[in-house]
Amino acid sequence: MDFERPIVTVDIVLLTLLDGALHVGLAARDKAPALGAWTLPGGWVHTDKDQDADDAATRILRDKAGIASPYLEQLKTFSGMHRDSRGWSLSVSYYAVVPGQVCDRANERFRWAPVERLRSLPFDHAQILQTAVERVRSKTLYSSLPVHLMPAEFTLSELQRTYELVLGAELDKRGFRRRIEELDVIEEIPGAFSSGGHRPAQLYRRKAHAPPLKTAASNLSVG
Fold this sequence. Notes:
Blueprint: E1 7-18, E2 21-28, E3 38-39, E4 42-44, H1 53-65, E5 71-80, E6 89-97, E7 110-114, H2 125-142, H3 156-167, H4 173-183, E8 186-193, E9 202-206
Parallel strand pairs: 1-6
Antiparallel strand pairs: 1-2, 1-4, 2-3, 2-7, 5-6, 8-9
């Protein structure tokens, strides 16, 4: 018996920090439906090339955004008969984070938009975005995820500020530094200190062989 095949795609929520706020990467649609609209980077699974959905996500992120994320994780599968006018569809969604320093601000096919200012997106992409932001904020409370938002060199104060910007809340300095020591994913750069008008601070970097994500036994306390 023949069965109708569903539309199978991958959609990616690409997040970074720009100008002190969480931004999401959007790609311009080059075909109907929603031709010309700005949506989450996405595309069809290429069954002749992609080994799996992870492969497809990496390819789509490279092709649509020109970026290889240091952290890419499957988020959730969104499916149903009403999410796409072309027919019953299934999207394997992912979220990824990148340092703001490696992001081109905009071009004709890709741009960054502040998460808090987005009111609507085509398809169910607003729901996918909301789910991804909730996941990132949840993981920030107990993991090393925001380290992937940092430049190659940073101070502990800058890392704490990144955690706070993602969470939208202030953190206790001593509690935060105990957590970072517990996670053990960054190291001092010998002899390297910040420059500028303030008192020089020790510079850190992500450990070369640190796992992509480390978790703690409990959540951070937010103010």
